[in-house]
Amino acid sequence: MASAKDSAPELLITDSRLNRSYAIPIHPGGYVEATAFAGVKDTSGEGLMLFDEGSRNTACIKSAVSHLNAATGELQYRQYPIQDLFGNYGFAENVHLLVFGSLPNADQKKTLDRTLAQSMLTYIDASKVIQSFARTAPMMTMIMGGLSACNALEPHFIPVHEDRDIYGDAESVDDHVIRTLAALAVVISAAYCHKQSLPLQKPRENFSFMDNMLFMMNFISKETGLPIPEQLRTIGSTTNIPATIQQVKNRKRRLYGFGHRIYRAVDPRATLLKQFLQDRAKEGVPMSPYMQVALELERIVETDTFFTSRKLKANTDLYTVLAYESIGIPEELVFPFICISRTVGFLAHWKEQMAKLTLPVQLLLLRRGDRNKFTSGHRYSGRPNFEFEDYTR
């Protein structure tokens, strides 16, 4: 018989309704299976449900894409700390890592770049839809219209159109990942060209993903209107920071670029971007005057008790636009470029979720007069659960 020391850890609970005790296994990683509580039943035979509004303490999937430590500010993609990836690997390498699970070798990278380029060529005709927009239209509306056009070009790749699903079909999921990134690159490039009255260049198969985006947009580095983060633009200079900080303390304005829903330490992405900007300055690249505003804001937030008591730290938004500015990206392209980078992570998580169909449950709240519509406590296998809670009191 195994000793108590050797036995697996368990969560011991007592249900006072029937005075019964239950032992629920605690798995490595510190979690219990929510379905285990279905065995905790009342006199009607209904198992216990768990309610977690907003999924604040409920994991819905076992993921290997990323991990962060909110307390220390450590961020890891797959098995690599973000510090090991930043500046050492390009877009295609990071796509391969996040979506396919490993950094590619030279042949894999070449294949990925070529596959993305070939998919881009498929969606060039979507630019005709974008050209129907007024040039003054917001770029994101053009992008949304362009993505719909890309779908229309290949309806046979739309699962519902073909009366099929892609859950558990890894090959189809991977194909959709590639097509989504390619379509997004084309419509962003087409939208920019339309707004600038430039011709959209066709991508080349021997170009990398980012090279093709810049090529399609006729991108040329020159001194034009550089992007300025709106908050830093409003503050103007470091001499206006004290008044701005006082307005924040008086709750008359918000301070963007600080605080995070998860991180309680400095966002490691902000640290890397700040270092990138400082390195660029050392190389002689002219820095935006708003860089000093950002640095001074961060210094105050790190030392003023009003902010330290609230555990507010810099997040990646503080320096992102400045980083794009330093490499000559026009202001109206900053958000679309951010969309491209974040879409890779979204798709990596989406790929994991496609392994199994997810059907979340719900608690249905009904007034007393509506109770005759459903049978209280009735459950549908594989469908949302219906429960009743009296909130008329």
TrEMBL record:
Pfam family, one: Citrate_synt
Keyword Cytoplasm: no
PROSITE patterns recorded: CITRATE_SYNTHASE
Annotated InterPro entries: Citrate_synth-like_lrg_a-sub, Citrate_synth-like_sm_a-sub, Citrate_synthase, Citrate_synthase_AS, Citrate_synthase_sf
Keyword annotations: Transferase
Molecular functions per Gene Ontology: acyltransferase activity, acyl groups converted into alkyl on transfer
Family, as annotated: Belongs to the citrate synthase family.
Protein name: Citrate synthase
Species assigned in the record: Penicillium chermesinum
